[in-house]
TrEMBL record:
Protein name as catalogued: Family with sequence similarity 207 member A
Entry's Gene Ontology cellular component terms: 90S preribosome; nucleolus; preribosome, small subunit precursor
Organism: Cairina moschata (Muscovy duck)
Primary localisation category: nucleus
Compartments, record wording: Nucleus, Nucleolus
Family: Belongs to the SLX9 family.
Lineage: Eukaryota, Metazoa, Chordata, Craniata, Vertebrata
Length: 238
C-alpha cells in the first residue's frame, strides 16, 4: 500500500504598501511634543472631594428590613412525598379549571344580558306585578289539595292473597261457621238450609251479580240463614 502524500502548507504574508512620507504618527495616535506627555501616575483624582468616613459605615436594623428578607432561611420547608406533591398539583390544576369555567359562565351571562332588548319604562310593569310579600303570604295560606287515592280491590283467589288477607279470611270463615252452628234454622234441618244456600248461590253466579269479599258475608251460609230467619220472623209478625 502506498501512503497518502501530504502537501506542505506555506503561509504567504500580505503585501505591504510603500509609505512615501516616511515613518510618522498615524491617524488616531497621540501627537504631542516630546517631554510634554501627561503623567497620570502623579495626579490624584479625589483631591478636591471631601467625604466623611462616618457616612460610609451603615448598620442594618431588624425593623428596617422587610419581612421576607428576615424570614428567609429561618423556616424549613416541609418535605412532601411524591404522592402528596402530585395531589397538590392536581388540586391546583382543578382550581384553575374551575376558575376558567366560572369566567366562561360569567362571560355567557354577560353576553346574554347584553343581547336582551331593553324595554322602555319598567315602572308600569313593576306597579302591575304583585309584591313578593303578597305572593309568599298567598302560598302559605293555600292548602295543598287532597289526593284521592283509589282503594285497590282485594284479590278473590286465595293463592293471590297476602298473608294478612288470608288470616283475615280464615277468621271470618270461622266466625261464619260458629254462626251457622248456632243458627236455629240449621239446627232444625241442616240439609234443607245448606241446599237453599247452594241454590241461591248458583242463581247469583248465573245472573252475574255475586260479589265475593272476605270482609262481607253476602255469600256465606250464615248470612243466608240470617236472612231466612229474618224473613220468617217478618212473615210471622204480619
Amino acid at each position: 500500500m502506498v501512503g497518502k502524500a501530504r502537501r506542505q502548507r506555506l503561509h504567504r504574508p500580505a503585501p505591504r504598501l510603500p509609505d512615501p512620507a516616511g515613518p510618522g504618527p498615524g491617524p488616531g495616535c497621540w501627537n504631542a511634543p516630546a517631554g510634554k506627555d501627561w503623567d497620570f501616575s502623579s495626579s490624584d483624582i479625589f483631591s478636591g472631594l471631601n467625604i466623611d468616613p462616618n457616612t460610609l459605615v451603615k448598620k442594618l436594623d431588624l425593623d428596617s428590613r422587610s419581612i421576607i428578607s428576615s424570614r428567609t432561611g429561618l423556616e424549613e420547608k416541609p418535605i412532601l412525598s411524591k404522592k402528596e406533591k402530585m395531589k397538590l398539583r392536581k388540586e391546583r390544576w382543578l382550581q384553575k379549571i374551575e376558575s376558567v369555567k366560572l369566567a366562561k359562565q360569567k362571560q355567557k351571562a354577560e353576553a346574554k344580558r347584553k343581547a336582551t332588548p331593553v324595554v322602555g319604562d319598567m315602572q308600569p310593569l313593576m306597579e302591575a306585578l304583585p309584591e313578593l310579600s303578597d305572593l309568599t303570604a298567598g302560598v302559605r295560606d293555600r292548602k295543598p289539595p287532597k289526593r284521592h287515592v283509589k282503594a285497590k280491590s282485594e284479590p278473590v283467589d286465595f293463592c293471590l292473597m297476602k298473608q294478612a288477607q288470608k288470616h283475615r279470611l280464615l277468621e271470618q270463615e270461622v266466625a261464619w261457621f260458629h254462626e251457622v252452628i248456632a243458627n236455629p234454622t240449621y239446627k232444625a234441618n241442616p240439609l234443607m238450609a245448606i241446599s237453599e244456600h247452594l241454590s241461591k248461590r248458583l242463581r247469583q253466579e248465573e245472573e252475574g251479580i255475586m260479589q265475593f269479599s272476605p270482609d262481607s258475608g253476602g255469600c256465606s251460609l250464615a248470612s243466608s240463614l240470617q236472612r231466612a230467619g229474618c224473613s220468617e220472623r217478618s212473615s210471622c209478625r204480619h
